[in-house]
Design a protein that fits this description.
Layout lengths: L2 H9 L3 H13 L4 H21 L5 H22 L8 E7 L7 H12 L2 E5 L6 H11 L3 E5 L6 H14 L4 E5 L5 H6 L4 E2 L3 H11 L4
Parallel strand pairs: 1-2, 1-3, 3-4, 4-5
The structure holds CO-5-methoxybenzimidazolylcobamide (B1M).
Length: about 210
């Protein structure tokens, strides 16, 4: 099948078309990881570029996000296939002021697929909410996502708040503007470049590597 057509459906925010072509790609035997990494994620990048050039506006971003969600739902069973033993628990959320959640959703899908129990706090999550969730769930691992340079300070505040309460809680961070150097500078325990790296890091931080 022509993967450029799928790319175009997602860039245009055509949810039914994206779903139909994702299904077709899976049925033709293409691995879910390949569809994700070589078609869907790069298409969201194109959407971002069009937004930057003022050719797309927020409504177009929302349409693309909706189409991406539909595709992820179809890929989820394939991405999480495997015979995994329970690995650990993690609390995840997008930091305060930030509404982006597709990357976080992917991280969650991959963590769950690798045996983690995940408590999802959603988006725009205040530091206190992370603290509460850690207390309630007993999780020793927190994952923070941020997509805006303007919400990086909220990430720093959240790491600081968690570490002040209990310095042994492990915090991993990720998202497009995040780097290893930033993680080091704010005292996070690790940075995951993508969802697969986040799983390896989560295992390592909980001593299950
Ligand atoms: Co927004 N947005 N957006 N947006 N948006 C970006 C991020 C932007 C880069 C677009 C651009 O200008 N090129 C830009 C940020 C610029 C900057 O800060 N440097 C931007 C902007 C400016 C904005 C608004 C301010 C626009 C406005 O209102 N004027 C506004 C802010 C709202 C807010 O949050 N307060 C806004 C709004 C939105 C929507 C709500 C409309 C929508 C999000 C819908 C949703 O998520 N449900 C949206 C979208 C869709 C995007 C782009 C186009 C796509 C993001 C995405 O889903 N990527 C984005 C452009 C881009 O990223 N190139 C853009 C796909 C996703 C799989 O990748 O999230 O990076 P990503 O996740 C990756 C890794 O980063 C990593 O793993 C994932 C898988 O590989 N990862 C982790 C992520 N979290 C991790 C956590 C980990 C580990 C790894 O451990 C815990």
């Amino acid at each position: 099948m022509n993967l450029d057509d799928l790319k175009q459906r997602l860039i245009e925010g055509d949810a039914p078309g994206t779903a139909a072509m994702t299904k077709e790609a899976l049925e033709s035997g293409l691995p879910a990881q390949k569809i994700l990494n070589e078609v869907l994620i790069p298409s969201m990048g194109v959407v971002g570029d069009l937004f930057e050039k003022n050719e797309y506006f927020v409504p177009e971003l929302l349409l693309a996000a909706r189409a991406m969600y539909g595709a992820l739902d179809l890929l989820r069973p394939k991405l999480t296939e495997g015979d995994y033993q329970p690995t650990g628990k993690a609390v995840v959320g997008t930091v305060q002021g930030d509404l982006h959640d597709i990357g976080k959703k992917l991280v969650m899908i991959m963590l769950e697929g690798n045996g983690f129990e995940v408590v999802d706090l959603g988006t725009d999550v205040a530091p206190e909410k992370f603290l509460e969730a850690v207390k309630e769930s007993g999780s020793r691992l927190v994952g923070l996502s941020a997509l805006l340079t303007t919400t990086l300070p909220a990430m720093e505040r959240t790491v600081r708040a968690l570490k002040e309460v209990d310095s042994s809680i492990k915090v991993m961070i990720g998202g497009a503007p995040v780097t290893q150097a930033f993680a080091d500078s704010i005292g996070a325990d690790g940075y995951g470049r993508d969802a697969s790296a986040a799983v390896a890091l989560a295992r390592q931080l909980l001593g299950n590597a």
